[in-house]
Amino acid sequence: MKNTPLYSISCLLVILLTCTSFSDFTFQVGVMKYNGGGDWYSNPTSVPNLVKFCNANLNTSIDEEVPYVEVGGPDLFNYPFIHMTGHGNVVFSSSESDNLRMYLLAGGFLHIDDNYGMDEYVRIQMKRVFPELDFIELPFDHPIYHQKYDFSNGLPKVHQHDKKAPQGFGLILEGRLMCFYTYECDLGDGWEDFEVHKDSEETRTNALKMGANIMQYALMGSQD
Questions:
Q1: Helices 5-18/201-220 angle, 10° precision
Q2: 3.40.50.12140, 3.40.20.10, 3.40.50.1260, 3.20.20.70: which CATH number matches 5-220?
Q3: Are strands 68-70 and 30-33 parallel, antiparallel or unpaired?
Q4: Which among 13, 14, 84, 91 has most CB atoms closer than 10 A?
Q5: Distance from CA of residue 113 to its chain's centroid?
Q6: Distance between CA atoms of 100 and 108, rounded to whole angstroms?
Q7: Tens of pLDDT, residues 180-215
């Protein structure tokens, strides 16, 4: 039993929730590797930079090595927080959908960041994972926007793309936010090394602060 995926994620979450501070326990977060031809590998410096920011500003002790994790593999359950990004096509097989569903039901958290072009694919594939749920837009007073850093107007805008207002959507089951989907925002670009996009320091800092809020909420924050 102790080697089963459900045991792994459950133990990680129990340890995190019973720690008196983030620094009491070292853990890893991962980036999802998926099929369909989309560039799951885009923004290679983004999550490592977010981890460094969280360790410096939230007193976390997250391993700075951020692995790519197969959506359908058992290793998914070793990471309490998984980030997913890309620009286009995403396809989950039936077994991958089942694996991701089990991971999220077991207490794992998925952050999806549309790097521009993912929206239609994300919505279709996550509907395969949770046919009974729809993405709902989170109100600006949701706790995810008010962790260490306060975002009273919701998500910061990093890149313009279609010049729409950024939106944060969630999949919520029995009051628990399992998946947070950031759209028309491009947080991951804001987390990247300065040389990649040459965003302003203010833009990058706001993106990292919002990312830290997501991490804090996912791992130790209040639930709806």
A1: 110
A2: 3.40.50.12140
A3: parallel
A4: 84
A5: 7
A6: 9
A7: 999 999 999 999 988 877 889 999 999 999 999 999
